[in-house]
Amino acid sequence: MQARHGTEKNQFAAKNAFKALLLIGAGWLAGPGVALAEEGSKSFVDDFSTFERSRWYVSDGWSNGNHQNCTWSSNQVKVADNKLTLSFEKRPYKDREYSCSEIQTTQRFGYGIYEARFKTDTGSGLNAAFFTYIGPQSGQPHDEIDFEALTKDTSKIEVNTYVDGKPHHGSKIDVAGGTDGKFNDYAIVWEPEQIRWYVNGQLVHTASGPTLPSHPQKIFFSFWGTDTLNDWMGAFTDPGRRVVFEIDQISFTELGEECQFPESVACNLQ
């Protein structure tokens, strides 16, 4: 990410290549004591009326590497008023000056429709992410499918995949009204031959061909900051307040199953 120069395409490729090295080098840790869940998990809708510990693991007490200026803290994960809130603030924890937040499913999911309704905050040097991931710490290659909102510019959201630790299919997508203006619906349709990304029910990006993830993955939400990845995420400045990433709903629908709510992309999938 520090090496991004030249065209937007080359900058994006450099960011992804460096990010892959960071994730492989640091190991995207599932965290101490996280049990590997069985495969073949089923469709669900979670509106966060409660926080289901059987479904979600809360990351706490470590970071993903030196590029991250914060430590994952369970104190930054809250559920109230039917919303999950992940926060970032200047609250020293372990060896970092800031605390940040991440949750991940205890189970792995395969081909299907992944949907989330969320709203970000603003701030340079911060990343609010909805993604799927599996990697070497689980005895699997590094596969990943991303929505990443870099809140230095809330008019866009980034999409991406990784296959065996290598980035593919990256793009920046315009979000009308911004990721921070209101709750927007984001969807990933993962099929064997293609992956499609949707924003508010509209198809915005498609990836196909041999370089697609193929291993069941966990679902993640994370909100974190950096002091070093300035070219990608923007120069970090202390926001001077607690900033938040709000998630209203998350769902997974297995391929071939009925859609689970009227607004679901699965209801009109071709």
Give a brief rundown of this model.
With 270 residues, the protein is mainly β. The chain is built from two helices and 16 strands. β10 and β11 form a beta hairpin.
What does this structure look like?
By secondary structure, the protein is mostly beta strands. The longest helix is centred in the N-terminal third of the chain and has 19 residues. The protein contains two helices and 16 strands. The N terminus is likely disordered. Strands 1, 4, 5, 7, 12, 13, 14 and 16 form an eight-stranded antiparallel β-sheet that branches. Strands 2, 3, 6, 8, 9, 10, 11 and 15 form an eight-stranded mixed β-sheet that branches. Strand 10 and strand 11 form a beta hairpin. The protein has one domain: Jelly Rolls.
Name the overall outline. Answer: globular
Name the CATH architecture: Sandwich
Provide the residue-averaged pLDDT.
88
Highest-level CATH class: Mainly Beta
CATH topology: Jelly Rolls
Q: What is the CA–CA distance across the termini?
A: 37 Å
Largest sheet: 8 strands, antiparallel
Query: How many extended strands?
Result: 16
Q: Keyphrases for this structure?
A:
270 residues, mainly beta, Jelly Rolls, eight-stranded antiparallel β-sheet, eight-stranded mixed β-sheet, 2 helices, 16 strands, 40% strand, globular, disordered N terminus
